[in-house]
Design a protein that fits this description.
The chain is an alpha+beta fold and 166 residues long. It is built from five helices and six strands; from the N terminus they run βββαβββαααα.
């Protein structure tokens, strides 16, 4: 498989699981579907290949254009990693693979967010959307109104009066 960034041949390396690494080029790493989640936290994985990858300096700071999946050949989507709000990763929505540029795995591991931190970050992003809190209040008021209407319609049902006077 060729690297989607520099087109050099990627080689299989063992990080505790087998991944493809661009050893002779940009030092990027390819993770098949589900593999990145096995290595994204400190202490996961092992071996000299992983240690070498974690020492590689970061060489992509967001200036690179869109790349194509080395497996599917479709354009990959760049987005923030779910557990690190600072690192952009490239994901293939076809096969579920991830490509990390040199140094990004180390940054993900060093800045890994807990579940509480992920929730707080998501809340921060959602609350920054203009008009979001107003819409939430409108929805809550609508839910109260629907509940009140439901109680009123219960009064109109025959069963309500039958139970009340038995």
């Amino acid at each position: 498989m060729n690297c989607p960034v520099c087109a050099k041949e990627m080689v299989k390396e063992n990080f505790g699981i087998d991944v493809e690494v661009c050893n002779n080029g940009c030092k990027g790493i390819w993770f098949d579907h589900g593999e990145l989640q096995l290595l994204d936290q400190p202490g996961e994985g092992m071996g000299p290949a992983l240690e070498a990858a974690l020492r590689s300096p970061r060489n992509n700071h967001g200036q690179r254009g869109q790349i194509k999946c080395p497996k599917c050949s479709i354009p990959m989507h760049t987005h923030k990693f779910e557990r690190d709000k600072e690192v952009n990763v490239d994901e293939c929505y076809g096969c579920g693979g991830f490509f990390l540029d040199s140094g990004e795995l180390n940054e993900i591991r060093n800045n890994y967010m807990s579940d509480a931190e992920v929730k707080a970050y998501a809340d921060q992003l959602i609350n920054a959307v203009p008009g979001y809190t107003d819409e939430v209040k409108k929805l809550q008021n609508e839910e109260k109104r629907i509940k009140a209407v439901g109680k009123f319609t219960d009064i109109l049902k025959k069963d309500y009066w039958t139970k009340k006077f038995q």
